[in-house]
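A.,

Following up on our hallway conversation. Structure tokens first:
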């Protein structure tokens, strides 16, 4: 019986330590959740490309800020049956000609203007064509509207990409 009484204070200290540890973990989790929520206000992150014709996932683009310019790098491809990994941009011109599509910067030059990123360019690596581009966050930052156009933004088409964790 004396042993139980001797163990009681140690048990209480363990309980206090456990409570402090749990509180610290909860604070860290709330901080991480807050940081994740803050990320929703920026297009920086990983985005799943959705084909606007088939509505299927085609790959992942990683958006980053480089010297105040928003850029998107094609980092993962979801291949369709018959497509070969390691595809090259054979229809591209200049420095992108015959370069691997995977790892290629396909969005560049975007500058923030209000709630949009404008005056950029987007490459369609399957066609080797470069278009004007704008992007804007939708649905509280969980989606990204990517608009490519020829000449003026009115003449173009949009895709909606989904943010990945």
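Then the amino acids I'd put at each of the 165 positions:
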């Amino acid at each position: 019986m004396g042993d139980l009484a001797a163990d009681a204070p140690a048990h209480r200290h363990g309980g206090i330590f456990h409570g402090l540890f749990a509180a610290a973990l909860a604070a860290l989790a709330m901080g991480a959740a807050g940081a994740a929520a803050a990320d929703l206000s920026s297009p920086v992150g990983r985005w799943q490309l959705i084909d606007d014709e088939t509505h299927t996932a085609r790959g992942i683009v990683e958006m980053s800020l480089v010297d105040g310019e928003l850029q998107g790098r094609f980092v993962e491809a979801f291949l369709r049956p018959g497509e070969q990994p390691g595809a090259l941009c054979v229809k591209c011109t200049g420095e992108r000609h015959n370069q691997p599509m995977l790892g290629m910067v396909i969005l560049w030059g975007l500058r923030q203007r209000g709630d949009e990123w404008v005056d950029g360019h987007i490459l369609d690596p399957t066609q080797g064509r470069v278009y004007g581009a704008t992007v804007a966050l939708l649905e509280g930052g969980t989606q990204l509207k990517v608009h490519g156009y020829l000449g003026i933004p009115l003449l173009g088409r949009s895709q909606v990409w989904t943010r990945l964790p």
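The beta strands are 45-50, 57-66, 69-77, 105-113, 116-124, 129-138, 143-149, 156-163. Curious whether your intuition agrees with the design.

B.
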